[in-house]
Amino acid sequence: MTIQPQEKIRVAVIGTGPGGLAAIIHLLRVPFVELSAFDQATELREVGAGISINQNTWRHLHLLGAANAIEQISARGDGTKVDHEQRNGLTGELIAQSFQKVEINAPPRSRIERYKLQNALLGQVPKGFVQLSKELSKIEESSKGTDLTFEDGTTAGPFDLLIGADGIRSAVRKHAFPDHRLSYTGKVAYRVIIPQSKVAHIKGIPKAATFWHTKDTHVYTDPLDNGLFEIATRASEPEEDIKKVSWGQKVKPEQVQHHYDHYCETIKQVIAAPDEWLEFAMFGGPRLESVISNGHIALLGDASHPLSGAFGSGAAFAFEDAYVLAQALLYTHKNGESVSQAIRLYDEVRSPHYKGLYQILNNFASNAKEIEAISPPLIENDFINERTRRNWNAENKWIYEYDVTKVWKQYIDTIDAGKDLTKLSLQKNKEAETAIVPVIPVSA
Ligand SMILES: Cc1cc2nc3c(=O)[nH]c(=O)nc-3n(C[C@H](O)[C@H](O)[C@H](O)COP(=O)(O)OP(=O)(O)OC[C@H]3O[C@@H](n4cnc5c(N)ncnc54)[C@H](O)[C@@H]3O)c2cc1C
């Protein structure tokens, strides 16, 4: 369908986590979009513990007008402050360190409570705008658009564009890609934020965000700048031991502690400190070849890349998606092009990004295989150190520095160059089409 300049595009956003809220904020600024938003929740609140605000996250919080609402509690240092440490969880041995950035345009990484991020975004959305208690249960596509049915029996639509921002277990993804399978990864995350006073007596806790690795699991410790202390862990738990839907459930310390008996003394004591934990069963699935469907459905955030929290930057990925989708609608509308063309551009920019992220996970798996094949076999400590060194090197830093605004600009410049060439008949149509090059991640 080609959109006439005077026509409004009817858009529905399903899900209002960080991704859905970012999409709403961007699209509310687009005059030709008639926006509706739905969430299954009865109230908009965030469960969980901390969330890292990396350089790419800050960039988008500024674009969303939500940065000022988040105190920037990590003061910029002179570059000598250790930002991250990678340690051997069995011995406590330091494997690698990285230092805080000092560049003026790169705010230091912060770790904040998740609800603060949610509140900062909600501050940019008119009260009552999101329709709550609307669990999407059915999607019907026709030539008139997409109609939605919710669990409470109500309906909405038709819409010209359906944005599935409904998280890792996305109902929109299930509809668009019925053969895609999500499964329990065999890993559970236990997370908590407690006062620093509860761990003040424990020796050997670094002042930096620290990953303590073992062969199968890790523990993350982070003394936050506001007197709180975050602990986030992974544990292996077979499916029969864990309720498959467990997400943000409170659990007792006994359920958590036994997983970390073999860790070094510092971590054993840290794990003993909380009176209660939150448990998250981790789900994941293969990469989708495309994050769009049928010319009028776009997946965004965790719905578009079921990576199971890998890289600790899912909110930033969702913000990047929302930015590109809004830009694509603006760009195609200006050119009198269709919604289906807009989401095709969105897909061309975002799918390669997710391909790159999945590739890193494949590299992790290859690293582990290569190290396992070393002869004579490495003892466990050496295995952990070698794998950590290989996985967490500077090569992956681009994820957190990635500037999708530059990538988008580069992309449309390439398209525009192709169009100009076509106009001037300097190239045959076919060649102009191929001028749409795949996007290579660029650093900020
Ligand atoms: C253990 C863990 C640690 C993480 N740490 C970090 C971190 O440090 N930094 C970071 O940036 N990211 C982190 N992430 C990832 C981050 O939490 C997610 O990537 C981010 O929340 C994704 O946002 P989203 O909006 O796509 O989905 P979600 O936040 O999952 O939101 C989905 C929304 O959709 C709604 N919904 C779902 N189904 C339906 C339906 N059928 N109908 C209507 N509404 C529906 C839900 O109620 C929810 O509001 C972590 C994730 C995990 C699991």
UniProtKB/TrEMBL annotation:
<dbReference type="GO" id="GO:0016491">
    <property type="term" value="F:oxidoreductase activity"/>
</dbReference>
<dbReference type="InterPro" id="IPR002938">
    <property type="entry name" value="FAD-bd"/>
</dbReference>
<dbReference type="GO" id="GO:0044550">
    <property type="term" value="P:secondary metabolite biosynthetic process"/>
</dbReference>
<dbReference type="GO" id="GO:0071949">
    <property type="term" value="F:FAD binding"/>
</dbReference>
<protein>
    <submittedName>
        <fullName>Salicylate hydroxylase</fullName>
    </submittedName>
</protein>
<dbReference type="InterPro" id="IPR036188">
    <property type="entry name" value="FAD/NAD-bd_sf"/>
</dbReference>
<keyword id="KW-0560">Oxidoreductase</keyword>
<dbReference type="InterPro" id="IPR051104">
    <property type="entry name" value="FAD_monoxygenase"/>
</dbReference>
<dbReference type="Pfam" id="PF01494">
    <property type="entry name" value="FAD_binding_3"/>
</dbReference>
<keyword id="KW-0274">FAD</keyword>
<feature type="domain" description="FAD-binding">
    <location>
        <begin position="9"/>
        <end position="357"/>
    </location>
</feature>
<keyword id="KW-0285">Flavoprotein</keyword>
